[in-house]
Design brief:
Blueprint lengths: L1 H15 L24 H20 L7 H4 L5 E2 L7 H5 L3 H6 L17 H19 L7 H26 L19 H13 L21 H18 L5 H15 L11 H9 L5 E5 L16 H4 L16 E2 L1 H7 L7 H6 E2 L9 E2 L5 E4 L4 E4 L3 E5 H14 L3 H14 L9 H15 L6 H7 L15 H6 L25
Helix pairs in contact: 1-2, 2-6, 2-7, 6-7, 7-8, 7-9, 8-9, 9-10, 9-15, 10-15, 15-16, 15-17, 16-17
Length: 500
């Protein structure tokens, strides 16, 4: 059944993809407007599922490497297998990475990350859906469903804008359904402010959870909207040189609301629960891209960090006796010191601080055998937002408001689940403790580099093995290059000049 649905969704995508022409120029499509398509809720459901498939494709396919590019850049990682381009990438030499033999390779496609069109395909489709659903007659859709679908479309476009800003900085911003103007880039703080207001206005129209367990975390929920609002506020606070109090206050408010819902919660850390968390659809899931090998829905193996940091029996065959990369001894001893009772060290690692390629990452442990030699591959979902991420953002925002009590309460929720000693620090030390707790809890979940950037710790060799200088940071060394294809038919477009 799921395979049939998947095929239908692909067909819908081929229609929805027509909503974007070239860069950002969108023209009306007769069969997606008027009386021909938006006749009932079933039409809307088909269309929104097509948007999710587009998002899935952008995040997971054609070398997008959602996790990998966030976790390895400027990280304390040793590329012991000398995989082409990755030492350049770890050192923030993106030009070198793109020019390497893997620069245009399907699985590790650095060059593909310079293209932003696929995000705008999602945005264009979401804008179209919001407009068309808003105009459907009451006889075709209930008021509750109308609000929910519109909120879902608004979530998807704001999620894409957030992901775009983290990669490229200033980006073109539009919300009209049929944009026909060549747009320039809008300041990233303005984009985030617009998205925050846009999402906050409709978050309550999304369900807290779903009766259908397969939709928990995989469809937009109120918890996902709250997490997105929190992330966007923290990103804007990192770059806004004005007063940041309002950003932090909104994050704390959202975190407190999120914590008030019984439908969200932390699972105890056990081997079985760890598998459930990263398989998805748990109370901890806020938003994720699901995978299920049993239905042929296998995600790219090359975006799972285990492809670099694991060996048999978590990856490959019995002859796969070493990992391709490992983390430095200094870093691992700092983040996961031995002997302090934190269960995550033994649950997620073997040879954590040995400093060689016997390093084993066990965090992503859902696997399946394939082929005649029973090669072990991964079947974990891609977690975009999960509850401890939001709890730690709340703690960070509270600490920046000098509310040590609230900050300790939220960070210690995460530490208690890990059976780690609670923090009692205050002030700057508490801020550092919370930062490292995010590094610890969200290890290899696509947050590392972005946390370094938005907190400006990327400027300091105390926190980064490959720091970026202040002048280079201000010039855009933290961004990705933008493909020159963005200039086509668009005289208002500019690129990230640092990488030219």
């Amino acid at each position: 059944m799921k395979k049939i649905i998947y095929i239908i969704f692909i067909a819908i995508i081929s229609i929805a993809a027509l909503s974007c022409k070239k860069f950002l120029n969108v023209t009306p499509i007769d069969n997606l407007s008027g009386n021909n398509y938006w006749q009932n809720e079933a039409d809307v459901e088909k269309f929104v599922n097509g948007i999710y498939i587009k998002l899935r494709s952008r995040i997971l396919n054609n070398g997008s490497t959602f996790y990998t590019f966030a976790d390895l850049r400027c990280a304390p990682v040793i590329n012991s297998a000398n995989i082409a381009g990755f030492t350049n990438f770890i050192n923030n030499d993106l030009k070198g990475a793109i020019a390497s033999t893997n620069g245009n390779y399907y699985f590790y496609n650095f060059k593909a990350a310079t293209e932003w069109k696929s995000y705008y395909d999602v945005i264009g489709s979401a804008n179209l859906m919001v407009k068309e659903v808003s105009e459907m007659p009451n006889s075709a859709i209930s008021d509750e469903s109308r609000k929910r679908y519109m909120a879902e479309g608004i979530f998807l476009r704001n999620l894409c804008y957030f992901l775009l800003v983290r990669m490229y900085g200033d980006v073109p911003y539009y919300t009209n359904a049929y944009n026909d103007q060549p747009l320039g880039r809008t300041n990233q703080i303005s984009v985030m402010k617009n998205c925050i207001a846009d999402m906050a206005a409709v978050k309550d129209d999304l369900p807290v959870t779903y009766v259908d367990a397969s939709q928990v975390g995989t469809r937009a929920m109120r918890g996902a909207a709250l997490a997105l609002i929190m992330h966007m506020n923290m990103w804007a606070a990192g770059f806004d040189n004005g007063i940041k109090t309002a950003y932090y206050e909104q994050v704390v408010k959202c975190g407190q609301e999120l914590s008030s819902y019984a439908d969200y919660g932390l699972l105890d850390y056990t081997v079985d629960n760890n598998k459930k968390i990263f398989k998805g659809n748990t109370k901890e899931s806020l938003f994720e891209i699901v995978s299920n090998a049993n239905y042929g829905e296998v995600l790219s193996q090359y975006d799972n960090p285990s492809v670099f940091f694991s060996k048999y029996p978590f990856r490959g065959t019995v002859t796969t006796t070493t990992s391709q990369m490992y983390y430095s001894v200094k870093f691992m001893q700092k983040v996961f010191p031995a002997g302090n009772g934190d269960v995550r060290r033994n649950l997620w690692f073997e040879n954590a601080d040995i400093g060689n390629n016997t390093f084993q990452l066990k965090k992503f442990s859902n696997t399946y055998p394939s082929g005649t030699n029973n090669t072990i591959s991964h079947d974990d979902s891609r977690i975009i937002f999960r509850l401890p991420d939001a709890l730690l953002l709340t703690a960070e925002a509270a600490a920046n408001l000098d509310d040590n009590t609230t900050a300790q309460t939220f960070v210690n929720k995460v530490r208690a689940r890990a059976q780690a000693i609670p923090f009692s620090s205050i002030g700057d030390q508490l801020k550092d403790d919370i930062y490292y707790e995010r590094v610890r809890e969200l290890f290899c979940e696509g947050q590392y580099f972005y946390d370094l950037v938005r907190t400006k710790r990327i400027l300091d060799s105390e926190y980064s093995d490959h720091p970026i200088g202040v002048a280079d940071f201000n010039a855009g060394a933290w961004t990705w290059p933008i493909s020159e294809s963005a200039l086509a038919n668009n005289p208002n477009m500019t690129l990230n000049n640092f990488w030219r």
